[in-house]
Amino acid sequence: MDSWHYLFVLAACLMVTAPLEWGARVYRQPARMVRAVAPVAVIFVAWDVLAVTAGVWSFNPRYVTGVELPGHLPVEEVLFVVVISLCGLLTYGAVEFLWDRIPQGLSSPEFC
Question: Is residue 67 a contact partner of residue 73, using CB atoms and an 8 Å limit?
Fold first, then answer.
């Protein structure tokens, strides 16, 4: 059961941020979502592969499923990069949605 912990945490992150979709509309714009997440994912997955290959860090086999991608990267790590990017995008979108609905006088610099 321990080997599923990483995936459970990622699923929990998605569930906690799922209600933000109401205002953020991230999942309703898949092309825009991919344009936002893909560059970040490519950079951080490459970073992870370099770090694992160089022996800078590793993953405890107890907490991963054992499914590895090229570069000895657990599939959970790639999912982590994507999920956390999506959660950040959802959060940003929700804050932007709410900010746009603040009455003009309340959003002025002297109020904040």
Answer: no
